[in-house]
Amino acid sequence: MSVASALNSPHVRTLTIGGKTVHILGTAHVSRASVEEVERLIAEVRPDSVCVELCDARYAALVDTERWKKLDIFKVFKEGKALFLLANLAVGAYQRRLGQELGVMPGAELLAGVDAARAIGAEVVLADRDVNVTLKRTWANVGFWKRSQLLAGILASVFERPVDPSGKSGDKADAKGVDALTVEELKDPANLSQLMQEFARALPEVKRPLIDERDLYLISKAREARGPTIVAVVGAGHVQGMVEHATTPVDRTLLEALPKPGWGSQVVKWLVPAVLVGTFFLGLGKTEGQAFGEMLKAWVLPTSLFSGIATLMVGGRWQSVLAAAVCSPLTTIHPLIASGMIVGPVEAWARRPTVADCENIHRDAQSLRGFFRNPFTRTLIVAVAATLGSAIGAWVGLSWVISIAT
Hints:
Distance between the termini: 82 Å
Number of strands: 5
Radius of gyration: 25 Å
Structural class: alpha/beta
Strand order of the largest sheet: 1-2-5-3-4
Largest sheet: 5 strands, mixed
């Protein structure tokens, strides 16, 4: 196949920027055809540099098969990242399940770009923004209800099989409907443009940090890559944005800045303890201290019960149920400590996840039963459940205390 045939692919856009030729190849992260297209384009163009849509953390996650052995579950709870890790596992499980059905693992085309670049002596550029910065900027850009919807959608993806929107079936199709042809059709510029427009209308606050900002980041890295000929291997959803911003000045320092907590979130953190303390003082003043016992019971009972029951419902060990019931009345009035930060380590101590459990996370995280069967992910679920239960109990308890005080 000639160079022209590779460059004539509908998935390749060629730009001339400041004396450099940049070939942007749009891929699907679970496409065998994308892997082959990446290898073919790099072998034929023989660029000086190859930019791939990876950051250091994502690249390490793809190549470090031992990373789960190194994960410190107690550190996860200490930093309050149990829910974040669960959501991350859910997304990864969905992609891996789809990849298994299509015969290619997520990100295979990006690693193929790295390998092909090294084979010809080209410089490899990890051109994407750090994934943690992207996630934090995305999270900060959406409100409470939108966050809830996003988390629900992510976690629901664990329990669903991918569905082919075209309704195709046949020899190539999975029994549930997703096939390689569908994935390739989604890479088509016309289909992709319509999809991105729908995404922008439905979730504009998500699209900006997740797609638009990264378009700028990726094209700026490609422009600065060494040599006159560059190949950029990116997800198909980034191609049009990179083309549109081919000459747009980009300050990557601004794009890498972590968002500062808004005053609204700070107010919400302190709202429950502030109202609770104020209500206690109001009630004590009106009743001359006689209602203290009733108000204390009104606070302790629901916070303990809801957190303990939530922990029990997801199969927490008895030690964790007890810890949830004991700590929730206190953690709910401290804005920086969640019940899960205490219950999680207790569950981990009682359940004792092993290295083998960590190695099996990706396999077990592909189903609801697997999530609960694996001691590591079960521990995460218990921690999240305890936190959610105590939060519900706090609002019930606060309402009860207010009713007594007034």
